[in-house]
Amino acid sequence: MAEIRRHYLVPARLEELFAAELWAAGTLGLEIKPHDGERVRIEAYFDQASPEPDLGAMGLEGADEIESVGQEPVVPVDWLARYRENARPFPVGRRLLLDPREPDEPPCEVPPGRVLLRLPARSAFGVGSHESTRLALELLEDLAEDGGLAGCSALEIGAGTAVLSFAALLFGARSAIAFDLDPGAPIHARDNSRLNGLFPLHFAGRLAALIAPPHPKSRFDLLLLNVLPEEILAELPDLVERLAPGGELIFSGILAERGDEILGRVAALGLVERGRRIANEWIAFRLARAADGA
Asked: φ, ψ for residue 31 (rounded to 5)?
């Protein structure tokens, strides 16, 4: 099927609403990239025969601020097939071994002291090899070794394959909920649940789909966040409200050059740094909310 890629510059506050409208308009997939701090760039893929979405007819408040900046045909390339040809299990941190191969591949040898997570490379959600995901997994491992994961409840935002939720459960979390705006994410995550025998709850949607605070059922001991800051900063205050007193937030997907800026944002919300990990241009933070009365 011939495809076309359409480009839009979108105010960060409208990103999720506009993405939902694009799904309703029949997009085959989205890529969301940072642009200038205030706007994100959304690249939407459509069947080449489909008409361009009418921004004015969407009924989206602020649609006049969304700019359509071009389109081009997409040359079909099966990038995942190329990746799968060279996919090999790889270690992350001190305890994990991630296997991106298909389920029908022969079982791999798991070195002593490591635990296997199987995440077949079937989609654009990744298999845990990106540096930002590695940093989040390493911080999660640090938290587990400090005894902060045993029996806790976790919430993963922008979960993709739900690799952080799977790791949290492996490391001792009692429960995990994983959600993503992309409606395809829970499908792949549930396949991976069956493959690994780990069963976080999955859904496609927004943070607002959870029970609003201050209901106690909306509070979590651990929040897992591996997204670009532009995608979540507007919702960060609501997110912190869902973190139980004394709970922790692992925040990755941050360019190292923006580390101080992001720390200032989260400090204003009452979070303090407990640790950090850096790899090349990426940085991730382990943050904590003060306990009641602290």
From this structure: -125, 130
| Residue 95 falls inside a structural domain | no
**Is residue 265 included in any domain, yes or no?**
yes
Tell me if 43 sits within 8 A of 83, measured CB to CB: no
Residue type, 183: P
239/231 Cα distance (integer angstroms): 13
How far is C-alpha 209 from the geometric centre of its chain's CA atoms? Answer: 16
How many domains is the chain partitioned into structurally? 2
Dihedral, 195, 201, 207, 211 alpha carbons, nearest 10 = 180
Q: Is 197 helix (H, G, I), strand (E, B) or coil?
A: coil
> Which residues in the chain show pLDDT less than 70?
1, 77-86, 121-127, 211-217, 292-294
Kindly report, residue by residue over 50-107, the tens digit of the pLDDT: 898 998 888 888 889 999 999 999 877 654 555 555 578 999 999 999 998 888 888 8
Residues 8 and 150 in one domain: no
Among residues 60, 144, 59, the alpha carbon closest in space to that of 94 is found at 144
Does the N-terminal peptide bond of residue 120 adopt cis geometry, omega within 30 degrees of 0? no
For residue 5, what is the enclosing H or E element?
Answer: strand 3-11
Per-residue pLDDT tens over the stretch 194-207: 999 999 998 888 77
Q: Are residues 134 and 66 in the same domain?
A: no
How big is the chain, counted in residues?
294
Helices 131-145 and 163-170, axial angle in degrees (round to 10): 20
| pLDDT value, residue 121 | 66
Same domain, 167 and 45: no
Cβ-proximal residues to 29 (8 Å cutoff; 6+ apart), any chain: 44, 45, 124, 184
